[in-house]
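Translate sequence into structure tokens.
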Amino acid sequence: MTLEEVFRFLSDYEFKECEAQIRASNITELCHLTPDRLKKIGITNESVCLEIYNAMKKHLDIKKYSKVFNDPIHGHIELHPLLVKIIDTPQFQRLRHIKQLGGGYYVFPGASHNRFEHSIGVAYLAGEFAKALKVKQPELNITGRDVLCVQIAGLCHDLGHGPFSRLFDLMFNPEADPPTKDWKHKEASLKMFEHLVKTNNLEEEMKQYRLKIPTDLTFIKEMIKPLKSDDTKWLYKGRDENKSFLYEIVSNKQNGIDVDKFDYFARDCHHLGIRNNFDHQRFIMFARVCDVNGRKHICSRDKEVANLYDMFHTRISLHRRAYKHRVTQSVEMMIKDALVEANRHIEIVGSKGKKFQLSTAKTDMEAYTKLTDQVVEEISKSTDDNLKGAKEILQRISDRKLYWCVGQANPKKGKIIEELIESLTKAVQKQDPEEMIAEMLESLKKDLLKDFHYRRNDGQITVQVTEKKENLKEKLDKVPDLGKDNFEVIVVNLDYGMKDEDPINKTYFYSKEKPNEAFTIPISEVSKLLPECFSEVFIRVYMKNFKTETEKNNAKKCFREWCKEVDYEIPKMDDDDDPSSGTSAIQSGAFGRRACKSFEGKTVGGAINGLGINDRDVLCAQIAGLCHDLGHGPFSHVFDGMFNPQADPSGEKWEHEDASILMFDHLVDDNNLKPVMNEYGLITEGDNENDLVFIKEMIKGSLKNNLPQNEQLYRGRNNEKSFLYEIVANKQNGLDVDKFDYFAR
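Result follows.
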């Protein structure tokens, strides 16, 4: 350890007043900061000596008790022991069972990540950001306490999420508990954080790491749920105004640029298979703090403005392609309806034995700790007749019998303005065709369009669309034979994160020449290709129950008539992307597709075309790939590799492939799939090349080829096609698409 590291310790733990005496003594090792040694060099205050010594011991323990997490987004990250203590509590572990993207997992199979790993990622980035500013700008006096508090806020910012994340507070709660319709998960995050600290006795642990209670607890809670403030009066109590920039790291109310977004953009894109164009590491590298009107703000290099627009473009792209995907919203609507149906019939025991409904559990943190996505499993397995309706809705999701999207429409944009410009153009051109007139017209056009976008974005359009929503719902409910309350009409907003405003207008920049002077950059100086409008709003209609195509057509006809009446546009919609088309709507990463790809190379021209592979072979291989893991028990290989031999030692050696075959038979029979298979040309009866037999043989895997050369190896296909058995589960040498997928995944 060097002398500089000793001084860094003194700075982090706020012992700078002792630096001169320690520097003169040439102490170069932290372990030498004992009370006796400190007294010898002139630090006579015994309580200060003891404080330095205890802080030194705790500091040395940090490395010893820190933990390294291997994160798929940020790599190997080391977390402070206090963060590990928080992670190892029931209140935080609860986040393992809350999907980050709610119902999105039912549409995007890769989106299986949870709030747990996202929160760890935000804690890591919060620490890295604070440390980067501390190193670059020592004059900011960022202490170790500051960094630790910022990390804790990042770790705990999402503690209050309910089942399926935003589905709970944005969809379920307003309907199930109307008096608290404006409730948001951030309120529960504060209560859950307080509950976590209290029930796990963490205040004492925090004091050992030199956090000041209650000041630092207040600071952490203020960062979890920042106040809406202007640049006039300082409203926070956890830190003084000279550290205002710290409130912009975890949840930035100034412009929305914060580490919460940095993590979920990278993490969600990774799991969704969508490209992330924003480089958060570059942003952190170029960020610095500047004074703006007497208050310190985080600023970015002027050349990074395009990178920030990429960030907000990524945000709106994720909302359009995933979060507000039509099928995602169909699934989430169904989960919401199931939870509303079950709300009064599920009791959750909270503090002092008091019982709560799903909608009221948020008022008691002991009860809320028990409320996660697993509630849908509880409903599905219940034998309570009161939950029958909720069970049926959830079963429909499993069967892909989703709510049908009738259509979507939005207000026509700029029609009146464009007509006005056209008439003005014709009028002026008749009088004076000079170039000056053309320039004047172009300027007028820009001003008019700018005014239109401003008026369109001041919230009036959103209010107008919301009002139209109720009118449309009434009209649909009156369509004969379709049933009242059979439709759900929703308003979808897409924006850059600040409703109708350009967030870059509230972002400060600095230049290389003047790194301490902050300024804003108008959009006109960035690029002509950037948007003039920063929000979009439209209406979307779903039909819950339908029996015939006629009913669907009547609903669509009613919707189109309404759009004509109110002058709304209907964009073209891809029928293949519709919930009613079932699994074609799934954004699949399933390796059944890989099995198909492996065949494509073999079936295109040349000598290999003589292998005789037909469409039945390809489809059977895909089905085998899709169903090969049906038989896994709880926690996958833990069940057959560890639990089963100990729990049932008397039985023969059992492997999940055995259950996969039994489950496949059950799946085919229970869902009456043989007629469907026959429609697609598969043979499901008889002994001659029976495709069901072939699929089950592929699930079990190829045989080790130690039989006599002329002996028939399989029943589903003859020996000439024995190579087909090596594609899904290759027992010959282990090279198969099962491994190709799970290695990559």
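Note: The chain has 30 helices and eleven strands.
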